[in-house]
Each structure stands twice: as C-alpha cells, then as structure tokens.
Amino acid sequence: MSLVVGSDADAYVAAQIRQGANPGFQFKTHPNIDKAGYGNGVLGLKDPSRPFPTGSELGVLKWRFQSRDESLVPLTLSCWPSASGSECYVNMEYESAVEYDLERVVIAIPLPHMSHAPQVNQVDGDWRYDSRRGALLWSIDLIDNTNRSGSMEFVVPACDPDALYPIEVSFSSSKTFCDIAIEGVSSTQTGQPVKFGQKRGMSTAGYHVV
Residues in domain MHD (predicted)? Predict the structure, then answer.
C-alpha cells in the first residue's frame, strides 16, 4: 500500500483502514508509521507533527502470503497431451474459483521446434502464435462468473509432453488478493476528513505452471 500526497496543505494526515481476516498474511509497516496506531486500524506517522512527503509515492504497508493450498490459486491450468501417430493433440483447460474477476489473461504455452502456427481446433477466447517466443498465446479478455472455466484444443507434431512446459500466465485484477481497503483519511491537525481517492489492483510478476 502506497500513499501519495498531492499538496503540502494535506500532508498532515492519517488513514483509517479496514482489514479482513486475511489468514496466513504477514504485514509490515514502514519504519516511520506508528505501529500502535496501525494496531487500531490507523496508518499515520509516529510523529503526527511531521508531514508526509508531497508529490512522491511512499510505501506505508507491505504484506506477504505463502501457502500450499491450491484452492487459493486465482487460476489453475490442466494440460492433457495425447499422441496420435505423428501428431500430438493437446487439450488444455483453465479454471478460476475465486470470487473476483481476472482481466487481460494470457496463457503462453511453449511449442519448441515449430516453424509455423499449430492447428487450433477449438478455443474459448482468442489465440495467436508468437514465432519469436516459440509459444502459443491463449488470451481471454475477462474471466468472470460467465466463464469461470474454459478450454482449448490444438495439434502439434509428436513431442515430449514435458516440452509444453513451463507455461507462463499473466493477468490483472481490480481487486487485491489481500482483503484491505482505505475507509477514510483525516487531518492530524484538525481531525477533519480529508478528500482522497484510492486505486486497488493486482497483477502478476511471475506465474508459472511447471
């Protein structure tokens, strides 16, 4: 979570936050944030007489989460290759069981030793062959409650199934994996509400299926 103050007049502020249960999450505040206040749902400086920096982004809260529970994964993929003579039929399926939407989903399947696009028999979404990367790019603009699962079938020359991995996935969302939000911002000098806006988002930095 980062804070950007637009003017010097609004630099003396504290933010009221709402956090869900978030089991398994570990949180860490910026060294200058008052930890006691954070424990009461307020993000403010240890010294309220000091202003936040103006015009630059300041990270005020970080969180970390690790789990082996596959039910928490936003998007799961299944790959079923089946050899038939000199060809290999590959059936792929995606599934998203989360309650939020995933946007701009791109699933990149490596296709080594291919000099041309594969034969695609069926696809939910769109596809294209990236010859530079040697990968079939399966794209879905939006995954929501109307298409929580989908599939694709394509045909390539017979190959070792391991050659179809690792599969790289990218997506974004307007929701965060962590249940947290700003509920209000107030002046530490007057206690009056301060007008604010917030933008939440999630994107992949590295998402691989091996």
Answer: 1-210
Q: Which two tokens stand for residue 18?
A: 């709402």
Over residues 19-45, the mean pLDDT reads 96
Phi-psi region of 125 (alpha: psi -120 to 50; beta: other; left: phi over 0): left
Residue 25 β-bridge partners: 65
Provide the residue ranges of all domains of the chain, joining segments of one domain with +.
Answer: 2-68+177-201, 75-171
56: tokens are 């630059």
Asked if 164 and 112 touch (Cβ cutoff 8 Å), the reply is no
**146-171 pLDDT, tens per residue?**
999 999 999 999 989 999 999 999 99
User: Which alpha helices (DSSP H) does 52-203 contain, by range?
Assistant: none
3-state secondary structure of 115: coil
CATH fold label, 75-171: Immunoglobulin-like (2.60.40)
Q: How many CA atoms lie within 13 A of 92 on its CB side?
A: 29
Residue found under tokens 């400086």: 45
